[in-house]
Each structure stands twice: as C-alpha cells, then as structure tokens.
Amino acid sequence: MQLNNNVTEFILLGLAQDPVRKKIVFVTFLIIYLGTLMGNLLIITTIKTSRALGSPMYFFLFHLSLTDTFLSTSIAPRVTVDALLKNATISFSECMIQVFSSHFFGCLEIFILILMAVDRYVAICKPLRYMTIMSHRVLCGVLMAVAWVGSCVHSSAQISLALSLPFCGPNVIDHYFCDLQPLLKLACTDTYVTNLLLVSNSGAICTVSFVMLMFSYVIILHSLRNHSTEGRKKALSTCVSHIIVVILFFGPCIFIYTRPATTFPMDKMIAVFYTVGTPLINPLIYTLRNAEVKNSMRILWSKKLISDDKK
C-alpha cells in the first residue's frame, strides 16, 4: 500500500513546539516511562516469585502489568526522544506498526480488565465454587489466549483501515503518536465510512466493555451486603481499585473513539491518560490498596537484602 502513496514519512508535532515546553515533555515522559517500567516489573517479579500470589486474580494482574509495560513502551520512548528533536519524523512503516501495537495492547488491557471483573464476580458471588470455576491452569490460560486473539483481530482491523487510506500530502500529524483518527485528517479521500468503521470498532469496544464492567461491579457491590464485615471490607477494597482503573482507562478512550472525525485541542492531553498515564497508575493502585501484594513485596525485598548481606 505504501507504493500507492506519495507520503513515505510523517512529521509528528508532538505535545509542544516551544523549546522550553519540549524539554518539560522530555523530562515528564522520561520519568513516567521509568516509573511505569519499575512499577510494573516489580509487580511482575513479585507475582512470579511469590507462592502466596498464586490465585487467578494475580494471574490476570501479572498479564495486566505485562500489557501496561508493552503499551507504554509502544509510545513513551519515542515521544521522549522526539521531544529532543527539532523535527520529529516517523516513517510510514513505523507509523503503521505503532497504530497496530498501541491498539493491540490497548485492546488487550480492556479484555484483561473484563477477565479480572469476571474473576472478582466468581470469587465474591460464588466463593465455594471459585477454585473449581476459575481453574488457574486451564480456564485462565484459555481466557488469556482468547484475549490475545481478540486483540489481534481488533488491531488487524485498525491497521487495515489505516493501510486503505491514500496519503498525497500534507504529512504533518497533529499528535504525539500515530493513531487512526489523526491519520484520517491527512487522507486525500472521503473518510466518512472509515471513521464510521472506527467508531463501530474501537468506539463500540470501549463503550460496551465499560458498560459491562460497571454493571458487573454494581452486581458485585450489591452482593456484598450478605458478607461478613471483614469479608465485605476486603472485597470492597479490591473492587474499588478495579473501578478506579476502569474509569481512568475507559473515560479518555470513550471520549476519543466514540465521536465523529473532529479534533479538539485537549485530545492529545486526554490521550496521555490512557496511553502512558494508566500504565503508570495501575501499579500504584494495585499495590497501595492490596495487602497481599505489599506483604509479598516486603518478603521479596527482605530476601534480596539477606542475599546481598551474604555476598
């Protein structure tokens, strides 16, 4: 498809044009990315090494942290480097790869959040059958495989839409990463149908998933009235963490992908929330509000200190 286009590369305007503001963007995104890596890798290591975190909930949390790491890596490093350049360019092929990867890991995060909601529903509403229903080795593995396949189908549809667009110039993308919506503005053809397909794909996935998740948590919270005070407190803490993550991730996504092909000045800042903001916040939410994860981290850190002392 690239051979049919006059455009071989795009210019990314980024989040700022002023040199001072670009330096602020560089420092900010560098800190965010390093924090995201440290937080998520800490959770990944803790879950992998701790026997106490062997339940399905932590299996899904492991994959959520892995997905957050990849989602942030697909965008943040390039934004950080581009902030140091006078003119940030990205080749056509690299742009398409970024469209695919950002949508793949973004969609995978949506599916994992749904699986985590299902896990909490079974654990709270059907506690006696929890380990039977949520078989860690069988069902959870199958569910994650389905999530990966579903994400691949979604991102393949997105990249197909992007590759179907003819680009004759100009080639300036008013964004800090390649996404289908800013690319629609550069296409030298009528993009009404393409935008409709975008809304019916990404927009529908975001909206339907958000409604399903919020409805499931309403059911879960309603069922807590039959639990003991201690059980209610623990389950409520976990559910509140999940609800915060869902709102922070889906709010910006729904705003961006469920409207006509029009852009607003705040679009880029709102996109920051779900592309690099949520991957940074997730580890904080799941560690600060989860006693089991914090205890496992303390044990892991204690073992490391003992090991260092022996050396």
TrEMBL record:
It comes from the Eukaryota. GO terms for molecular function: G protein-coupled receptor activity; olfactory receptor activity. Residues 39-286 form the G-protein coupled receptors family 1 profile domain. It is found in: Cell membrane; Membrane. It comes from Catagonus wagneri. Belongs to the G-protein coupled receptor 1 family. Keywords: Cell membrane, G-protein coupled receptor, Membrane, Olfaction, Receptor, Sensory transduction, Transducer, Transmembrane, Transmembrane helix. InterPro entries: GPCR_Rhodpsn, GPCR_Rhodpsn_7TM, Olfact_rcpt, Olfactory_Receptors. It is a multi-pass membrane protein. One of its GO terms (cellular component) is plasma membrane. Pfam families: 7tm_4. PROSITE patterns: G_PROTEIN_RECEP_F1_1, G_PROTEIN_RECEP_F1_2. This is Olfactory receptor. The keyword Zinc does not apply. Coiled coil: none annotated. Putative odorant or sperm cell receptor. The chain crosses the membrane at residues 24-45, 57-76, 96-118, 138-157, 202-224, 236-257, 269-288.
